[in-house]
Amino acid sequence: MAKETVPTPKYTVPGLSTDDARKLIDLLRLRLHALNDLHLTLKHVHWNVVGPHFIAVHEMLDPQVDRVRDMADDVAERLAALGGVAQGTPGSLVKERTWDDYSIGRADAIAHLGALDVVYTGILEAVRKAVEVAGEIDPATEDLLIEQLRDLEQFQWFVRAHLESAGGTLATADATTEKDGASAGGDVS
Asked: Quick one: signal sequence residues (predicted)?
């Protein structure tokens, strides 16, 4: 699944060239898809988590869902301000994303958290790369992404607190896939 490059906008924010705006729009399109996907993934976990830690995880995720939705809105509005079109449809997300669907169904809370740790790692790595690119072009877009990076890192910290031993060992330290993370974290049915 390849990301498409967007056409150069006819206008953009003052002080930014339309060519630079196109680069930012292209960058933000994938961030929008990632945030919409994360929102849906968090709700999926919220609905499919079971086990003794159910209520803690179930209730921990709702504020994350709300904040991620706000992040998506902020990215979509920045895209529009830059002269782009915020494609928020499921078809656009599926067509342009560079990752697969979340792969864990009904599972115990710690297994889902193990998988979410891997998801957050992938998202955070992509946001950091986007911050680098935006930083070379536009401080306003860079600032937006840095703010989101801080919140996403905090959400991963919340997840990892459930996966860390008192000695500081992270159960998912070697996990590279959601299934690895889920297996390291808990029981997957």
From this structure: none
Structural domain boundaries, residue 176: 18-185
What is the spatial distance between Cα 41 and Cα 119, in angstroms, rounded to a whole number? 9
Q: In sequence order, what are the beta bridge partners of 154?
A: none
Inside any domain, residue 55: yes
> Is residue 27 a part of any domain in this protein?
yes
User: In 10 A of CB 188, how many CB atoms?
Assistant: 20
pLDDT per position as a tens digit, 63-86: 999 999 999 999 999 999 999 999
**Among residues 145, 120, 127, which one has the least CA distance to residue 38?**
120
Q: pLDDT tens, 162-180?
A: 999 999 999 999 999 999 9
State the CATH number of the domain containing residue 104. Answer: 1.20.1260.10
Q: How many domains does the chain have?
A: 1
Q: Which of 97, 77, 73 is closest to 85 using CA atoms?
A: 77
Q: Can you give the pTM of this predicted structure?
A: 0.93
Q: What is the dihedral of CA 15, 75, 5, 117, to 10 degrees?
A: 130
11 found inside a domain: no
3-state secondary structure of 164: strand
Going 130 to 131 to 132 to 136, the CA torsion angle's sign is: positive
